[in-house]
Structures are given as structure tokens and as C-alpha cells.
Specification:
Blueprint lengths: L16 E4 L3 H13 L4 E5 L7 H18 L3 E3 L4 H8 L10 H20 L4 E4 L9 H12 L6 E2 L9 H12 L10 H13 L20
Parallel strand pairs: 1-2, 1-4, 2-3, 4-5
Helix pairs in contact: 1-2, 1-6, 4-5
The protein binds iron/sulfur cluster.
Iron/sulfur cluster binds next to α4 and α7.
Length: 219
């Protein structure tokens, strides 16, 4: 296993953590780090951006499988795609890392923050920032904005990539043979990824066929 993890301590003397999880590959490293540091945490799976339903179920079931392995509570939140599409209206052709993604993070974190507030969690964080495909500053901005209305809640903007986190994320994914998604999640990212592949002369994305550890994989 890559570099040793540092012992984690929740900010603001928090005693339990709500982890917004986007998928098993991204949350695996965080989950094992929390277990190792003795942090009491619950997974909150709220990702109505993921399209289509088949892909949503694949990602969710993989996350449930790993949560059960560690005996971690898993909150299966709404798949309210109507709200997601309503908020994405007019942003269909925005590039990844642009304003549609800010909306998407905002929406997922607003619901996570509300759940945290209503269920006594004083700290929340997200697995989204560990992916090198994402803009960490953009994610942290959204996280802080979502937590700001609640005086009893903080967004923990820990850099999960540092200290070998990015490498361990891939190692865990390979060890667990996690399902490997090939696009960010929404229908527009699927469309754009397929366009990119077409321009490279590659086949379209096929859902449910690629798993870490079964061939050469990248994070
Ligand atoms: S590209 Fe990813 S982060 Fe951006 S809107 Fe789509 S699913 Fe959300």
C-alpha cells in the first residue's frame, strides 16, 4: 500500500461526519481513512445527476457493497432527476468544470447539508474532490456555501489527494474490483465523452462492462 495515512481528526471538535459520496472508487480511500482514524461516519448517497438509471444503480450498488463490508451506515437519498434537469436548464452545452458543474455540486451539497443539520452531524465532506478530473477549489466553494446557512455545521475541505491519497484510491479500486465509470455522470457528460471518443475513432461508452483491476486502468 502507498504512503501511510496521517491520523485524521474532525474539525471544530465534531464527533460524527456525514460523507457525501459520489461513487465507490472516489469514496473508498476516504472510507478506509475514516475507519483507520476511528471516525464515526455515515455515507449520504445523493446523486440525481447520474444518468441513465442503469448507471445510477451500478454506482450506488457498488458503494453499498463497500459500505456493508465496513459496517458503515448508508443513506440512500432521492433520485430526484426532475429537479436536477430543471436546474440544469440552459446549461446543457456548458463544458465540464463550468457553471453546470457548480450547479450540480451545489444541489448535491445543499441536500447533504440539510440532512446533516437535521440529523445531528456537525461536519460534512465529500468524495468528489479526490478525483483529479475535478476542480477542487470549485468543489470546496460549493461545500462551504451549502454549509454556511447552518451555524452548527462545517464543510471539511481536507485535500484527500495528498499524502498518497490519489494512489491509494486507485489501489483500493483495483483490490475491490470496483465498477469503473467512464464519464462524470450526467447525460451531457455522457454525450460529450462519446463525441470525444468518436473524434478519436473509439467506440461509444458501454455501461456496466469495465471494472478496476481487470485491465490497465487510470483514475
Ligand atoms: S459533468 Fe459531472 S459535475 Fe458537471 S454537471 Fe455533469 S455530472 Fe455534474
Amino acid at each position: 500500500m502507498n504512503a501511510t495515512r496521517e491520523k485524521l481528526v474532525l474539525p471544530d471538535s465534531g464527533d460524527k461526519l456525514l460523507l457525501h459520496s459520489c461513487c465507490a472508487p472516489c469514496s473508498g480511500e476516504l472510507m478506509e481513512a475514516f475507519v483507520e482514524s476511528g471516525i464515526d461516519y455515515t455515507i449520504f448517497f445523493y446523486n440525481p445527476n447520474i444518468h441513465p438509471l442503469k448507471e445510477y444503480e451500478l454506482r450506488k450498488q457498488e458503494n453499498i457493497r463497500f459500505a456493508q463490508k465496513h459496517g458503515v451506515p448508508f443513506v440512500d437519498a432521492d433520485y430526484d432527476t426532475d429537479n436536477w434537469f430543471a436546474r440544469a436548464k440552459g446549461m446543457e452545452n456548458e463544458p465540464e468544470r463550468g457553471i453546470r458543474c457548480t450547479m450540480c455540486f451545489d444541489m448535491r451539497f445543499e441536500r447533504s447539508a440539510l440532512y446533516a443539520h437535521e440529523h445531528g452531524f456537525r461536519v460534512m465532506t465529500s468524495s468528489l474532490g479526490i478525483s483529479r478530473w475535478k476542480n477542487m477549489a470549485q468543489i470546496n466553494d460549493c461545500g462551504h456555501r451549502a454549509a454556511a446557512p447552518y451555524q452548527d455545521l462545517v464543510y471539511w475541505d481536507y485535500n484527500w489527494r495528498k499524502g498518497g491519497g490519489s494512489s491509494r484510491m486507485i489501489e483500493i479500486s483495483k483490490r475491490e474490483n470496483f465498477y469503473q465509470q467512464e464519464y462524470c455522470g450526467c447525460v451531457y457528460s455522457l454525450r460529450d465523452s462519446n463525441r470525444h471518443r468518436r473524434d478519436q475513432g473509439r467506440d461509444k461508452i458501454r455501461l456496466g462492462v469495465k471494472f478496476y483491476g481487470t485491465e490497465d486502468t487510470e483514475g
